[in-house]
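Budget justification aside, the reviewers requested a transparent look at the raw inputs and outputs of the sequence design task funded under Objective 1. We therefore reproduce one unedited record. The lines immediately below are the structure tokens for a 394-residue chain.
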């Protein structure tokens, strides 16, 4: 009997893309979420089994018991694929016991967390000679004066633990323009007992953001990789990809690949870089340690990372591959890109003409698929319902 693939988190299109990437090969996929509400990804025709689990944070012990019980009932240890940072945190905390029941690429407990945490990530990057934005901690001596002299305004207040920060503030960072705004932002995070750092903003528009997506085998050697260039994000300037194109950038293989191999990484990772508009240097911004927004784009340009993960962990690895030419294809999350376009135009960062020209490229859609329409229709119904509710409240 073939091993199942357990997909954690199907209320977002990352989980949906993982289900499609695996299900198309006839792999038994298990869509796991804590609620049926909004879990539109599980409606995919490629979902073999759908389960509702206890909440990974509110009922963590019950969630772990659920995972273990399911794993024990299987004839073959399933491949575990988390599609949200919070699931990764739980897996990392209980890695040794979960590895007895599931196939998980990472073998070093704590490494997921070290890479997800912004402070420890930056220390590792500096150790291996990778550029990172200048960063200060509120506990540093002479903190306020050093922000002024070393970072300058505007700068950003950034969480060390992104999932907890986003859960509270519904944004990834605070951008502050002066000391008063900085102190206000720090007061907000202190009230929520969250840790943050303050960081210099690397100059350059959103199209100076790049990604290096890679898979490393159990010897921590890169077997698959591809690079991309962001064009638009939401929220604008400091958000998630909504319009991103595959773009061959060999320098990122040298920088990002060496870093991941040096830290002994195993499995999938996506490093986000920003290219300094003034110097041309690439700065490591963060690392995503689970499947990402761009998954469907990466599949369409030649690398199916969930499938690569599954095949290696089940003992039949696929041939190594790198995308070393431009394929002229973009990832598009249309709903949030429309919101982003509105804000880019409103702030005069883009013109209508620039936007219209960009939309001509062939697209890898975040949600919609003609061959698998139910998730897209469910998402559209859900979104229209939210819009109608807002309209009625006015």
């Amino acid at each position: 009997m073939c091993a199942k693939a357990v997909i954690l988190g199907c209320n977002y299109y990352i989980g949906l893309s993982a289900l499609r990437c695996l299900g198309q090969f006839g792999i038994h996929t298990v869509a796991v979420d804590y609620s049926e509400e909004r879990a539109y990804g599980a409606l995919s025709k490629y979902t073999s089994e759908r389960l509702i689990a206890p909440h990974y944070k509110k009922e963590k012990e019950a969630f772990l018991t659920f995972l273990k019980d399911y794993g024990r009932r299987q004839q073959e240890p399933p491949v575990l694929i988390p599609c949200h940072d919070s699931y990764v945190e739980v897996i990392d905390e209980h890695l040794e016991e979960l590895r007895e029941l599931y196939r998980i690429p990472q073998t070093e407990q704590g490494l997921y967390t070290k890479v997800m945490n912004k402070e420890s990530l930056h220390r590792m990057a500096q150790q291996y000679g990778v550029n990172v934005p200048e960063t200060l901690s509120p506990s540093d001596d002479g903190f306020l004066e050093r922000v002024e002299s070393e970072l300058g305004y505007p700068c950003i207040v950034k969480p060390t633990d992104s999932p907890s920060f986003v859960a509270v503030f519904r944004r990834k960072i605070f951008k502050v323009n002066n000391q008063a705004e900085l102190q206000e932002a720090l007061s907000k995070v202190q009230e929520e007992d969250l840790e943050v750092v303050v960081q210099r903003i690397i100059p350059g528009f959103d199209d100076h953001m790049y990604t290096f997506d890679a898979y490393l085998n159990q010897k921590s050697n890169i077997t698959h990789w591809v690079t991309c260039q962001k064009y638009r994000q939401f929220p604008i300037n400091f958000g998630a990809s909504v319009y991103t194109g595959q773009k061959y950038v060999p320098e990122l293989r040298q920088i990002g690949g060496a870093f991941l191999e040096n830290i002994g990484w195993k499995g999938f990772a996506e490093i986000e870089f920003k290219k300094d508009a003034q110097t041309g240097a690439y700065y490591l911004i963060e690392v995503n340690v689970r499947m990402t927004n761009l998954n469907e784009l990466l599949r369409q340009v030649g690398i199916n990372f969930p499938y690569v993960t599954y095949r290696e962990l089940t003992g039949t690895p696929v041939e190594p591959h790198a995308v070393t030419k431009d394929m002229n294809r973009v990832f598009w999350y249309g709903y949030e890109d429309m919101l982003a376009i509105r804000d880019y135009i409103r702030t005069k960062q883009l013109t209508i003409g620039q936007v219209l020209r960009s939309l001509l490229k062939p697209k890898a859609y975040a949600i919609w698929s003609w061959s698998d329409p139910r998730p897209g229709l469910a998402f559209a119904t859900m979104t229209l319902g939210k819009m109608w509710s807002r309209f009625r409240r006015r």
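The longest strand covers residues 222-234. The chain has a mean pLDDT of 95. Computational costs for records of this kind are itemized in the attached budget.
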